């Protein structure tokens, strides 16, 4: 097995791990909705957890971008320097507002955002 194949296996494993972590954040958000009696605190926790999941999904997206590059190189049989996840990302890393915008875009993706407004509404109506 060559270095690029090993990298793919490691990246894929971490990509799936981020998915599990995002699900755990959603479960904690649900628990906070049920267990936290102070509505203001519960809403603040939901916002914090929503943003945390957005950060996780942004990190996962970076892994996914590298996975796609590795897969394309493996499929085409072309050379791609292995183990360059962080170097590649650093070369295109946005600064300040651009980085915050990435996180906010992740937060608004339907797969991330769906439960949070519903849980917030549940808190307000309860």
Describe this structure in words.
There is one protein chain. The longest helix has 38 residues, at 39-76. The protein has one domain (3-125). It is mainly α and 126 residues long. The protein is elongated. It has 6 helices and no strands. The model has no long low-confidence stretch (mean pLDDT 95). Helix 1 runs antiparallel to helix 2 and helix 1 (3-35) runs parallel beside helix 6. The protein has helices spanning 3-35, 39-76, 85-92, 97-108, 110-113, 115-125.
Comma- or semicolon-separated keywords:
mainly alpha; 6 helices
Flag low-confidence runs. none
Proportion of beta-strand residues: under 5%
Mean pLDDT rating = 95
SSE pattern: HHHHHH
Overall number of structural domains: 1
Shape: elongated
State the helicity in percent bands.
over 70%
What integer value in Å does the Rg equal? 18 Å
- The class by helix and strand makeup works out as mainly alpha
Give the distance, in angstroms, between the N- and C-terminal Cα atoms. 56 Å
Transmembrane segments: 20-51
Keywords: Membrane, Transmembrane, Transmembrane helix
Protein name: ABC transmembrane type-1 domain-containing protein
Topology overview:
Layout: H1 3-35, H2 39-76, H3 85-92, H4 97-108, H5 110-113, H6 115-125
Helix pairs in contact: 1-2, 1-6, 2-4, 2-6
Keywords: Membrane, Transmembrane, Transmembrane helix
Organism: Pelomonas cellulosilytica
Transmembrane segments: 20-51
């Amino acid at each position: 097995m060559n270095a690029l194949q090993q990298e793919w296996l490691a990246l894929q494993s971490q990509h799936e791990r981020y998915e599990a972590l995002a699900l755990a954040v959603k479960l904690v958000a649900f628990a906070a909705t049920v267990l936290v009696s102070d509505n203001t605190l519960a809403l603040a926790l939901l916002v914090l957890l929503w943003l945390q999941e957005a950060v996780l999904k942004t990190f996962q997206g970076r892994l996914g971008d590298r996975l796609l590059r590795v897969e394309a190189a493996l499929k085409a049989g072309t050379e791609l320097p292995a183990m360059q996840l962080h170097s590649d990302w650093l070369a295109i890393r946005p600064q300040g507002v651009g980085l915050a915008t990435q996180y906010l875009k992740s937060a608004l993706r339907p797969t991330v955002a769906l439960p949070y407004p519903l849980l917030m509404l549940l808190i307000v109506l309860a």
